[in-house]
From TrEMBL:
<dbReference type="Pfam" id="PF02538">
    <property type="entry name" value="Hydantoinase_B"/>
</dbReference>
<dbReference type="GO" id="GO:0017168">
    <property type="term" value="F:5-oxoprolinase (ATP-hydrolyzing) activity"/>
</dbReference>
<keyword id="KW-0436">Ligase</keyword>
<dbReference type="InterPro" id="IPR003692">
    <property type="entry name" value="Hydantoinase_B"/>
</dbReference>
<dbReference type="InterPro" id="IPR045079">
    <property type="entry name" value="Oxoprolinase-like"/>
</dbReference>
<dbReference type="GO" id="GO:0016874">
    <property type="term" value="F:ligase activity"/>
</dbReference>
<feature type="domain" description="Hydantoinase B/oxoprolinase">
    <location>
        <begin position="20"/>
        <end position="534"/>
    </location>
</feature>
<protein>
    <submittedName>
        <fullName>Acetophenone carboxylase delta subunit</fullName>
        <ecNumber>6.4.1.8</ecNumber>
    </submittedName>
</protein>
<dbReference type="GO" id="GO:0006749">
    <property type="term" value="P:glutathione metabolic process"/>
</dbReference>
<dbReference type="GO" id="GO:0005829">
    <property type="term" value="C:cytosol"/>
</dbReference>
Length: 581
């Protein structure tokens, strides 16, 4: 609602009845796509969609330009999907678009970045005429191949590829496609259920759109599309025009798979656009952590948009002034057949890299570095092979989404265990354990992991994962910041690094498939966000509050924050007595 009000205030005449009507319709479209997204959440089979919200939903005009997106969803999916519908139109052909059609792909370069994302597009007809499209994307747990992980050497190993094609032709589902999918994945019922959920949520969006068009007596969306795109474009350009005409370069280093990776960007502010050029970034990796440009572009645009125009709704016009460049065969512009399964690891660090450059141009706006990529892992469970397994032992694929801490902000502490920039939710233990014979022995905040500063970084988490009696498993680790923790901004301290090991002390790698024998578990400590501003400027009341909540230990309260021993003792004694500080 705030975004709608912002555009109205800045660009519209309050006494213009037509403009007011268009504003109502615009707001209605946002509600339509949010209902579309919620329908997907309620009907999806995969926990990544139901519990984490790893999805997107949007409505498009007849040219394939995004008019509105759901609030529920991730920037990577939404902003990448903004480019995808045009590919569908081109591949299917306008003469081949019929009422009742549903189109599908998981093409990493014409979809949203890797084979584990299914994108579906449905044309919307009103009184026999094509008026627009609905699109949605969801991350599915398994697409065959090596499974979700970084171990592949090419995209051919990463799973089943579905080109842009018809899932349903004039309402008739392609049963041959269904049989091919079922024969190539480990969780066929789950995946086919997700595919039908995607198609259904588009249908929900279509129905609500037709209700709106009937109510407002619209024969097409051309006028409202022009209104949305023109006002969004002008609002974004106004924000860009207010910035200084400067250029800055920044870089950051992340773990990579076997060797570190450098992300480098030059951000230049022009009068009518912002150009982010990733020349100087590391080349394509041999393993599946490469990022197609469409996904890197999605997160680079997101970083700039939240920095200068967070209130303006996301659509084709509000994203257009952000120009993203990257040389081919850099790790942010990997082309076919590069392995890209874990493209999110690199993509999620793009905003922090862009922020580092933007902070040199407009100080005091962007946060310190955070955990960056999601702290995901997938567990492939099976009956134990070192001894007879019980009769109820079974195979299962369990994917769980988890988060480290976000970086401290210019005026606030970072958020604990929060997925920034992706925005997905951390999965509940109960939902994870319901998906298969996995046990989460421990899941709690990680004290002392947030970087110290005037504003403290958000805390990471501790997790311990094992399997039920009679099972062994492979764990696909998808972590970063093992060797390169989050860096502070404006004098803030680093956040804590990632650690991973078995409960018997065996060290484990931050990425890749690793075997865990029967009765063993994996202990993980996820990274904290970095601090913002000098630690000596942190309010003593905030330090005492952190100590009382267990966010920092008494040792850190003394060594990093300079709290006197008598003050520490007084705080801890008050906590024991249940007294307020």
């Amino acid at each position: 609602m705030a975004a709608w009000i912002y555009v109205r205030k800045v660009h519209l005449l309050a006494n213009d009845p037509k403009s007011v009507a268009y504003q109502v319709m615009w707001n209605r479209l946002i509600s339509v796509v949010e209902e579309q997204a919620q329908a997907l959440v309620r009907t999806a089979f995969s926990t990544s969609v139901r519990e984490a919200g790893d999805l997107s939903a949007g409505v498009y005009d007849v040219e394939g330009q995004m008019l509105a997106q759901a609030v529920t969803g991730t920037p990577g999916h939404v902003n990448a999907m903004a480019d995808a519908v045009a590919h569908f139109i081109r591949r299917i052909g306008r003469d081949n678009i019929s009422q009742g059609d549903v189109y599908i792909t998981n093409d990493p370069w014409e979809g949203t970045g890797h084979l584990h994302d299914i994108t579906m597009v449905s044309p919307s007809f009103h009184k026999g005429n094509l008026v627009g499209f609905f699109a949605c994307t969801a991350h599915i747990v398994d697409i065959g191949g090596r499974g979700f992980g970084a171990d592949a050497a090419s995209v051919y190993e990463e799973g089943l590829y579905i080109p842009v094609m018809k899932f349903a032709d004039a309402g008739v589902v392609d049963e041959t496609l269904i049989r091919i999918v079922r024969g190539n994945v480990r969780e066929p019922d789950q995946l086919i259920g997700d595919m039908y959920a995607l198609a259904t949520c588009n249908e929900i969006g279509h129905r609500r759109l037709i209700d709106m068009m009937t109510e407002f007596e619209l024969s097409d969306l051309s006028d409202i599309a022009h209104f949305i795109l023109e006002n969004s474009r002008r609002a974004t350009l106004d924000r860009i025009a207010a910035l200084p005409r400067k250029s800055a370069t920044a870089e950051m280093t992340i773990d990579g798979f076997d060797t570190p990776i450098t992300l480098r960007v030059n951000v230049t502010i022009h009068e009518d656009r912002i150009v982010s050029n990733f020349e100087g970034t590391s080349g394509v990796d041999k393993k599946g952590i490469n990022c197609p440009l469409v996904y890197a572009k999605a997160y680079a645009c997101y970083a700039l948009k939240v920095a200068i125009a967070p209130e303006i709704p996301n659509n084709a016009a509000s994203l257009a002034p952000f120009e993203i460049k990257a040389p081919v065969d850099t790790i942010v512009n990997a082309v076919h057949p590069a392995p890209v399964a874990l493209r999110h690891i690199v993509g999620h660090f793009v905003p922090d890299t862009v922020f580092a450059a933007f902070d040199q141009i407009v100080p005091g706006v962007v946060p310190a570095e955070g955990a960056g990529c999601l702290c995901n892992f997938q567990v492939s469970l099976r009956p134990r092979t070192d001894a007879p397994a019980p009769n109820d032992a079974r195979r299962a694929e369990v994917l769980t989404f988890n988060s480290g801490g976000s970086g401290a902000r210019p005026a606030y502490d970072g958020l604990n265990a929060t997925a920034f920039p992706s925005g997905v939710m951390t999965m509940p233990v109960e939902a994870t354990e319901h998906a298969g014979p996995v046990i989460i022995w421990r899941k709690e905040l990680r004290p002392d992991s947030g970087g110290a500063g005037k504003h403290r970084g958000g805390l990471g988490q501790f997790m311990e994962v094992g399997a039920r009696e009679g099972h062994e498993f492979d764990i696909q680790a998808m972590f970063d910041r093992v060797d390169h923790p989050a860096r502070g901004r404006r004098g803030g301290n680093f956040g804590a690094a990632t650690t991973i090991r078995r409960d018997d002390g065996v060290a484990m790698k931050g990425k890749g498939k690793q075997f865990v024998p029967h009765s063993r578990s994996v202990l993980m400590a996820f990274p904290g966000g970095a601090g913002y501003g000098p630690v000596e400027e942190r309010a003593k009341s905030a330090i005492k509050r952190d100590l009382a909540r267990g966010y920092i230990s008494r040792e850190v309260a003394a060594s990093e924050y300079g709290l006197a021993e008598d003050e520490i003792s007084a705080v801890l004694e008050a906590v024991l007595k249940g007294e307020d500080l």
